[in-house]
């Protein structure tokens, strides 16, 4: 499976059953850049694509240089690519369909830690599901957070399941709860149960979908350094534990030596990177591994994203290959330039004295 698509995300574009694509990894490795490009690539082959950021630090707006909100907005220059930024920590009353649940949910939130975040995540998924996008890409928050969100359906399912069975055992429990939570008459036992049952349905459905490798996959983004390798391994293990499919790794910020000029620092960094690259290839030989070059500049705006997106499909080839006639010729040109610059600097300094 891997060899056929080695060095690209072509397998993701070809898997037309995919509905949920999660992109995650350590902070600052390039999750937003990669998820944005993956959504751009998917928009070429799918009828409609939605990219969602669940990172409270919201940086889709930076990457696309366009402001996004919690409602899907068409990305400039596209007809079928939409983006939205949601805050997993928002108050529930900010969410649609949550009316009347506020006090109940906030009380529940105190009782079961993390349930408020889970609820708003579930509400968001419910909302997104009704919107009928062909595929939904998630630009997730740094590792720990993502895993917590993915874990929520199971946590919540268990909690709600318990609540339901309690309700069956003790009929009056729910009405007691409504009094306790002060939700009053306008929000009776039936309504609460209805909401909870509805929520449970969504969560069960989503849980099933997330665990189905035909529908869901998780793309790990990392850089060739020890900490990132370590975090990726942790991430892959957790995903396996939650039965969430993962078979793509993107290694970003790889140094390719195309300066033509010797640099001790660059050489040392490249040696270090190579060590971890080798380990990535060894550990994940059944994964599709995509290597992306470290650019001189940031990847900002639709055009920059589009330009960079080629390396997601065709493995990157450095412009200069060392040890060839062209390589040496280029090196001489660069060295001559540098010599001229140094001579000009010297002239300036001498005149200044
Ligand atoms: N290969 C690359 N070469 C040069 N710059 C890059 C590359 N990949 C990403 N960047 C830049 O690095 C910065 C961080 O990238 P990005 O925002 O995608 O990371 P992130 O993992 O989403 O970060 P965070 O964890 O803060 O959300 C951005 O300014 C981006 O333009
Ligand atoms: Mg980001």
From TrEMBL:
Record-annotated ArsA/GET3 Anion-transporting ATPase-like domain positions: 19-311
* Pfam families (UniProt xref): ArsA_ATPase
Entry keywords, A to Z: ATP-binding, Coiled coil, Cytoplasm, Endoplasmic reticulum, Hydrolase, Nucleotide-binding, Transport
Q: Its domain of life?
A: Eukaryota
List the subcellular locations.
Answer: Cytoplasm; Endoplasmic reticulum
Any idea which positions bind ATP?
26-33, 225, 252
Q: Which GO terms describe its biological process?
A: tail-anchored membrane protein insertion into ER membrane
GO CC, any one term: GET complex
Ranges in coiled-coil conformation: 325-352
Q: Which residues form the active site?
A: 55
Keyword Ribosomal protein attached: no
- GO molecular function annotations of the record: ATP binding; ATP hydrolysis activity
Q: Which InterPro entries match?
A: ArsA/GET3_ATPase-like, ATPase_ArsA/GET3, ATPase_ArsA/GET3_euk, P-loop_NTPase
Provide the family line.
Belongs to the arsA ATPase family.
- Per its database record, what is this protein's job? ATPase required for the post-translational delivery of tail-anchored (TA) proteins to the endoplasmic reticulum. Recognizes and selectively binds the transmembrane domain of TA proteins in the cytosol. This complex then targets to the endoplasmic reticulum by membrane-bound receptors, where the tail-anchored protein is released for insertion. This process is regulated by ATP binding and hydrolysis. ATP binding drives the homodimer towards the closed dimer state, facilitating recognition of newly synthesized TA membrane proteins. ATP hydrolysis is required for insertion.
Q: How does it assemble?
A: Homodimer.
**What PANTHER family does the annotation carry?**
ARSENICAL PUMP-DRIVING ATPASE ARSENITE-TRANSLOCATING ATPASE, ATPASE GET3
The name of this protein is: ArsA/GET3 Anion-transporting ATPase-like domain-containing protein
Say which species the protein is native to: Papaver somniferum
């Amino acid at each position: 499976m891997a060899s056929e698509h080695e060095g690209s995300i072509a397998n993701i574009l070809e898997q037309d059953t995919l509905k949920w694509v999660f992109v995650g990894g350590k902070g600052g490795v390039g999750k937003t850049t990669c998820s944005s490009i993956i959504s751009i690539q998917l928009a070429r082959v799918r009828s409609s694509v939605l990219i969602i950021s669940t990172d409270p630090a919201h940086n889709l707006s930076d990457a696309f240089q366009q402001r996004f909100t919690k409602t899907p907005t068409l990305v400039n220059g596209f007809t079928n690519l939409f983006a939205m930024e949601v805050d997993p920590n928002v108050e529930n009353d900010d969410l649609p369909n949550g009316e009347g649940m506020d006090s109940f949910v906030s009380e529940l939130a105190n009782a079961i830690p993390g349930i408020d975040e889970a609820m708003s995540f579930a509400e968001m998924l419910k909302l997104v599901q009704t919107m009928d996008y062909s595929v939904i890409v998630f630009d997730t928050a740094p590792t720990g957070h993502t895993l917590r969100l993915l874990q929520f359906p199971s946590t919540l399912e268990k909690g709600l399941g318990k609540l339901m069975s309690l309700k069956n055992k003790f009929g009056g429990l729910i009405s007691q709860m409504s009094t306790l939570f002060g939700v009053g008459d306008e929000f009776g036992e039936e309504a609460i149960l209805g909401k909870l049952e509805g929520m449970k349905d969504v969560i069960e459905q989503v849980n099933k979908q997330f665990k189905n490798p035909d529908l869901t996959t998780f793309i790990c983004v990392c850089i060739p350094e020890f900490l990132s390798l370590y975090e990726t391994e942790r991430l892959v293990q957790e995903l396996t534990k939650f039965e969430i499919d993962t078979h793509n790794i993107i290694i970003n910020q790889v140094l390719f030596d195309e300066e033509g000029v010797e640099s001790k620092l660059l050489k040392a960094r490249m040696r270090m990177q190579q060590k971890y690259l080798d380990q990535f290839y060894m550990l994940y030989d059944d994964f599709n591994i995509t290597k992306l070059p470290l650019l001189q500049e940031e990847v900002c705006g639709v055009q920059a994203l589009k330009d960079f997106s080629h390396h997601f499909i065709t493995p990157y080839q450095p412009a200069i290959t060392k040890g060839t006639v062209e390589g040496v010729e280029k090196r001489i040109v660069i060295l001559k330039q540098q010599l001229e610059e140094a001579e000009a600097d010297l002239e300036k300094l001498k005149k200044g004295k």
